[in-house]
Design brief:
With 496 residues, this protein is an all-alpha fold. It has one domain: Amino acid/polyamine transporter I, CATH 1.20.1740.10. Helix content is 77%, strand content 1%. The protein has 21 helices and 2 strands. A two-stranded parallel ribbon has the order 1-2. It is globular, with a radius of gyration of 22 Å.
Length: 496
């Protein structure tokens, strides 16, 4: 019988959850998306979706992990008598496919941290520097380094690895964000950036795009629906309050996003002209962070100190999310009886090999980001569906409201999981596919070619179909393998 580790304290759980949730999407995507969609007006739907998408899914994931003591595949198998292990498999596949190229992103942050520390941005064209660092063998080398660092942390286990790393990474990240935000808002002219972020353009709320962007930002930033919190839920002690922890992680993630906005937008508007500021914000995630940010800090008094600190924060955010993804993949192998160290070695080898195409070719990277980023919507839907199939009320009573003195959820939770999340999926998923077919690739929307039709509907459907067909074909085998090993769960009371 396999004996599980458990997080040593509530703070250990919360820091691990925040480490999972707070990533590069908070630091480079949120400021840009908020600025492009009405500033403060965008914050209204973004905050709303925290309650009707992200936190309910985080609660469900924590409860599934703690209740079944299995990774995504085994958990779905346990809840559906093996019939829908393939759904859990798809949740896992989506996050693992993201893991392969997210290691490349983590490598970029490490490369830019080294460059900022060594003063390499003081001369030369930032665009040329990015072109050299974004893809090729340099990117491949840092990709490998990221995978090895993440693997070293994960193979040390839950307490000595995940918890210990996040006790350093997450506080360091928040301290660095606060320092960066304070410096940014005290710059001459920073008030233009603050006004851009916090002075609401109410007219933006009449635009459906603002609402959909707010939903996608909340869903992807918090990690709701990724299966990562489900994996961390395996290591919760029985008396842990999962509702309180889920809310804390959700609010903590939103706080990190706001801090990132305060650290970024005032600098953009204080240093650049109005036209250049808008150009920077429209340059995409990679363009804003890796082309414009070095220029901004180089022009700012004290930028030689602030730039390394900023990229250190970005590297902490990327690494803390990376280790959560590695744990998800390793846990699936461990559910079949494999030892942690062997599972981590196999996962690391897969990351290095299967992530290398994204490191060497930026077009492949963008295609994988598109396909599996959109696939996260399906993952969130599957988590809500497995709760509904198990029985929403039964799930609430047996998996959530079991902690003496803990926060309890009522029938509203059932309603959100059963109806509201599927409705949001239909709207959000439909919008993304419509946009792909009419804006990104109107002529070749059906074409599955990932190189020449990077953002087509066809490339998404083709790759998802391959994954789903294989998972359904091997459903019974996966269900049996992932539930074969008996689990002895930790049941000690958690320290407050």
């Amino acid at each position: 019988m396999a004996k599980l580790e458990s997080f040593s304290s509530r703070w250990g759980i919360i820091l691990a959850g925040l480490g999972m949730a707070v990533g590069t999407g908070n630091m480079w995507r949120f400021p840009r998306i908020a600025a492009e969609n009405g500033g403060a007006a965008f914050l209204i739907p973004w905050f709303l979706f925290l309650f009707i998408w992200s936190i309910p899914l985080l609660i469900a994931e924590f409860a599934i992990g703690r209740g079944t003591r299995r990774g995504a595949v085994g958990a779905f198998a346990a809840l559906t008598n093996g019939k829908f292990a393939w759904m859990g498999g798809f949740v896992a596949v989506v996050t693992i496919m993201i893991l392969f190229y997210y290691s490349v992103v983590t490598g970029w942050t490490l490369r830019y941290l080294v460059a900022a520390t060594m003063g390499e941005f003081q001369s030369g064209d930032p665009k040329q520097y990015w072109d050299a660092a974004a893809s090729g063998w340099q990117a491949g080398g840092y990709h490998v380094a990221s995978a090895l660092i993440g693997a070293w942390i994960i193979q040390r286990g839950v307490v000595k690895g995940i918890e210990a790393a996040n006790r350093i990474l997450v506080p360091a990240l928040f301290v660095l964000l606060v320092v960066s935000a304070v410096r940014a808002v005290t710059l001459p002219g920073a008030d233009r950036g603050l006004e851009f972020l916090f002075n609401p353009d109410i007219a933006a709320l009449a635009n459906y795009k603002t609402w959909l962007e707010a939903l996608t930002q909340s869903a992807w930033s918090t990690g709701a629906g990724w299966g990562l919190i489900l994996t961390f839920g395996i290591y919760l002690k029985k008396r842990e309050d999962i509702v309180l922890n889920s809310a804390t992680i959700g609010f903590g993630d939103n706080s990190a996003s706001l801090l990132a906005g305060l650290a970024m937008l005032p600098v953009v508007f204080a240093i650049l002209s109005l036209d250049d500021a808008h150009a920077a914000l429209q340059s995409g995630n990679e363009g804003l962070m890796f082309i414009w940010v070095p220029q901004l800090f180089e022009r700012m008094a004290g930028g030689g100190v602030m730039l390394p600190l900023f990229f250190l924060a970005l590297a902490c955010a990327a690494l803390s999310s990376l280790i959560a993804m590695i744990e998800l993949a390793a846990r699936i192998l461990m559910d079949s009886g494999m030892a942690r160290k062997k599972a981590v070695r196999i996962v690391t080898a897969a990351i290095i090999v299967l992530g290398m195409p994204s490191a060497l070719n930026l077009t492949i990277f963008k295609n994988q980001d598109w396909v599996w980023g959109v696939g996260l919507m399906i993952s969130g839907l599957f988590i809500s569906l497995v709760v509904t199939m198990y029985g929403s009320r039964k799930f609430r009573e047996e998996f959530i409201n079991v902690t003496p003195g803990g926060v309890r959820v009522g029938g509203l939770f059932e309603f959100v999981l059963k109806y509201v999340i599927p409705a949001q999926f239909v709207v959000m998923f439909g919008w993304w596919m419509y946009t792909a077919a009419t804006v990104y690739d109107a002529a070749g929307w059906w074409n599955p070619d990932p190189i020449n039709h990077t953002f087509s509907v066809g490339t998404c459907v083709a790759q998802w179909s391959v994954a789903l067909l294989l998972l359904i074909f091997y459903n019974r085998r996966m269900a049996d393998a992932s539930t074969r090993t008996p689990i002895e769960a930790a049941d000690e009371e958690v320290d407050s």
